Records
---
Amino acid sequence: MAPISKHLLPMNSSVDTDGALRIAGLRIDALAAEYGTPLFVYDEDHIRSNCRALVAEFGVDNVVYASKAFLCKAMAALVHKEGLMLDVASGGELFVALAAGVPANRCVLHGNNKSDRELIEAIEAGVHHIVVDSFDELARLEAIHATGLPAARIQLRVTPGVHVHTHEFVATGQDDSKFGFNLTNGDAARAVALCKESKSVELLGLHCHIGSQVFAADNFTAAAKAMVEFFAPLGLEELTLGGGLGVAYLNHEPTPTYSQWGSALKEATRNLPSSARVIVEPGRSLVAATAVTIYSVGTVKNISGIRKYISVDGGMSDNPRPIMYGSGYEAFDPMRVDADRPDNARIVGKHCESGDIVILDASIPANVKVGDLMVTPVTGAYGYSMASNYNKIGRPAVVFVSNGNARLVVRREEYEDLVRLDIG
Ligand code: LLP
């Protein structure tokens, strides 16, 4: 198998004369020695460059970063500085954004089952708007308004009845979905009518998000067209068309571009009046390829006639995507980036289950041995954000690298952190 394809590596990656990987000028072995492994390394300027490309494609104020993909204070501050708004899908995500200094009016609250507390906190903080997901939520906003809080500025989440080509767990645009108001059965129209009557909400616009890791431009076009048809006669200001753009995880996969995505959406929305703002909400495509995870190899077990198992010092606790969605990744030795990968192995983690798989059937360089570093690229989205403490393994550290400098933005969890919630 060929060496790792460079399109999977962060933008500011380079290879030293001895074959070692550098990101933003820093050697991976030096980062591993300084911060330990597993370690998430983000190419900060790659994130910035993606933010700028999005703003250039969709316009300033029309890009909302779906912070569930990766959120910490440094990340919130960075995207805010680049002019993006933040989609926060819980009171916790809103808390982190505010703690990072993001003004509430640059945040959008999401969620299919927001608590009263989350709604009240969002209204009191003054979020830009709340994306309302159900009739029950509208009733709750009514009750909250009755206690004296201002009317909530809202968009209504609509399920446009579009099936996308992706894993069923991350498809959200089809009629059978827990998210949003159904367009096909008339719920969406009923919700709009309710809002227009109501004093407890100010309806700014509509929202849809059809799913994640979507490659097919025609899926985006179909959803956008259905939304435009519903939206146009209503005279509302804002139409959010979600995130969902797919990224390449494997050597042979192409990377869809923002301009391809933008063209699909622009084509579908071109007849809207210029007063209507078309907003996008990318998560994965903004951060996935900007980061890699560095692991250390701890054991190499060759079961003759069966397979080789290579165990690394992390696993499902820092990347649950393989076990949740059967997601595929590549792996390579960062000390010999350009080496062919003729060997095969199952790369597994250190957790107490057989499903703890990093890569089911990995192509790796010859003679991988205990103590080697191993890197999986494209781990910047839904990796750290879905990390857990399973087996009381502390979550990894996260560093941002830029121009030859590294800064620790999330420290590694230590043993003491594992009992900080325990009482007695
Ligand atoms: N907007 C809404 C309302 C969303 O629910 C999501 C993602 C996004 C935007 C951003 O979608 P993206 O651009 O990242 O595809 N954990 C799964 C992905 C779950 C996506 C959840 N919602 C995974 O690891 O594949």
Note: The CA atoms of residues 292 and 379 lie 5 Å apart.
---
Amino acid sequence: MDVEASTPSPREIEALARRIDRPVVLVGMMGVGKTSVGKRLAAVLGFGFVDADEAIEQAAQMSIPEIFERYGEAYFRGGERRVIARLLDERREAVGNVIATGGGAFVDPATRALILDHGIAVWLDSDVDTLFDRVARKANRPLLQQGDPRETLLRLKAEREPLYRQAPIHVESRSGPHQRTVTAILRKLEQWQ
Ligand code: S3P
């Protein structure tokens, strides 16, 4: 039997949830499914779920496209770093949370260091065709609003891959039910130490 494909039993999941002593932080490209997979993973583990992009929008009282348009990417990255630092702060009961980050968060050296030091980074990975299918319908990603979005995804994926690779856990998020990806993450978390 393929262990990575079989869902752990409730008892195994309970034992795993007890053992996880840091927030589980999903990193990877736009469109890979960090938010949907993160919500499901949190529900299975009985953890809370936080979407870092949403937390940034709440803190700024502005949408991400608006932040990019008014203040630029560098300003957004600064806000993203501060928000992620807050979400990872143990004193705020960050343990027992799954955090989905925006695709560029782990690319920023300071944010990456924070995540590697205080969380369990899980790199969700997909091929560019799958990413493109998932982002094509939405216009909420400022980095894809100029030029050919497929080319941009290809370029960003190539640039970012060596950095995402620093995450201790790597899981393929194929097209198809997100539950399969959640199961693969649970199995890898069981092996993580
Ligand atoms: C970005 C990804 C977006 C969002 C912003 C920048 C990126 O989040 O943070 O548009 O640099 O890849 P998602 O990965 O959730 O789309």
Note: Residues 87 and 137 are 29 Å apart (CA to CA).
---
Amino acid sequence: MEFSVKSRSAAAPRTACLVLGVYENGKLPATTAAIDRTTDGYLSKIIKGGDLEGQPGQSLLLHAVPGIPCQRLLLVGAGPEGTLNDRAYGKLLGCTFSTLASSGTREAMFQLAELEVEGRDTAWKLSQTIAVGQQSLYRFDRLKTALARPVLRGVSPSLEKSRAPKRPALRRVCLLVERKELAKAKKTLAQAAATAHGVDLAQDLANLPANICTPNYLLKEARKIARGHKSVTVRALNEAAMKKLGMGALLSVAQGSRTPPQLIIIQYKGAAARQKPVALIGKGVTFDSGGISLKPGAAMDEMKFDMCGAATVLGTMAAVAEMKLPLNLVALIPATENLPDGNASKPGDVVTTLSGQTVEILNTDAEGRLILCDTLSYAARFKPELMIDVATLTGACMVALGGHPSGLFSNHPPLAAALLKAGTYSQDRAWELPLWDEYQDQLKSNFADMANIGGRHGGAITAAAFLSRFATHTHWAHLDIAGTAWKSGAKKGATGRPVPLLTRFLLEHCGVLARDGLMSRSTGRARGTLGQ
Ligand code: BES
Ligand code: MN
Ligand code: ZN
């Protein structure tokens, strides 16, 4: 999909499909009203006829409307004037893209940045348009072949349709803005497109099955990013290197599998060498069977998604490199399988972590924290200004928050606040949970410094409390994405979250928005918005 921006002129543009908003109760936004006049009231007549009430999520596709050079006109409901909020605007965009996708049009022009959304400017509306467009047009069909099609053709149309995914017909979308906003809109567009590419990459990697997407495959993908950008370099620690360093926790997970683990290290240099990097750490369990504490069989296939943290860190890295952000970034990805081999860790085993602290493994299914704890310790070598880990860490997080926000934990309130803000802006929200000392007691072990599980209560929090013991060297935040990284059921598949949140956070953090004048003067500072 290709997006562009253009300044809007008074006359209707020549296009295969012009998309216009319509308020509820027959009221028309300025541009829609102007086109209505050009068409001699054709649009208002149709609306008065009751074909479109104007609620968000409703649309009406018109062909060959007289008096304008557009093959089609798509009218989309925008609710009562002045009532659009973030969610309703998202719904309106979703409806627009799904209607366009099934209409057969290859190209469209959107006149939707004109609609007022409470508290949002043009940049936000454009970013959302691209984000929603990417999501609604995303397909993962590379593992489906055309082989089944000739047999099915003509036999059962519904079966044929389900087996033969078509590429979306919509190829080009042009977003119309006011002339004075054009320069700014172009920058926004480039940033939003880079984010969308990052989301796309994260979704593709996460959707791949575990027999294809192995730790080595993730390493190759990291190298692919490096090949595309001079500013990115990649190296990796293999099992021998991990042993030498003393990463006993990470190794204890990897030893249950015959597929070798990798600790992937990706560095992006976009600022002076003396500038401390931001560290992103992504859980890369390419398949989580639970190990000896084996998971039940139902929906176990979804544990191929246990590398979504890694996928989103790679997606964010790709987006940052594409945007050439003025910051330094290091991504660390512990990648391994968690399987029940004869050599696998057993409940009760005690391991020594890279930090020197010992851990009693009471449940081999709590493996994410084991691979992350050594990686958090290892991150200290890069002297990061702050670090953020992203992990499909606990089913308990899904129980606590459902599937809408990611769980957020931090040892530094300004960092938590900045991440929450970035999530709200990008519609990839997080919600903070407490990381109080009281929870640490649940990790007591009779045989080691700590246990790797904390009992039934507050499971997402005790997992974060465990990680916090290895993140004492810098500002740190943890995103538990167990509920947000993928969808189950008929629409099973990766979401690419939280690439939008992380990318927005980094954009705000490095100060380019303030420099471009895209941020309000009261909140925009050149750098270092997190305090000390
Ligand atoms: N990868 C899982 C968490 C998970 C489970 C995410 C289901 C999404 C859906 C993680 O490694 C795990 O197994 N966690 C255990 C921890 C428990 C043993 C303390 C869990 O959540 O059950
Ligand atoms: Mn597990
Ligand atoms: Zn896991």
Note: The CA atoms of residues 404 and 484 lie 6 Å apart.
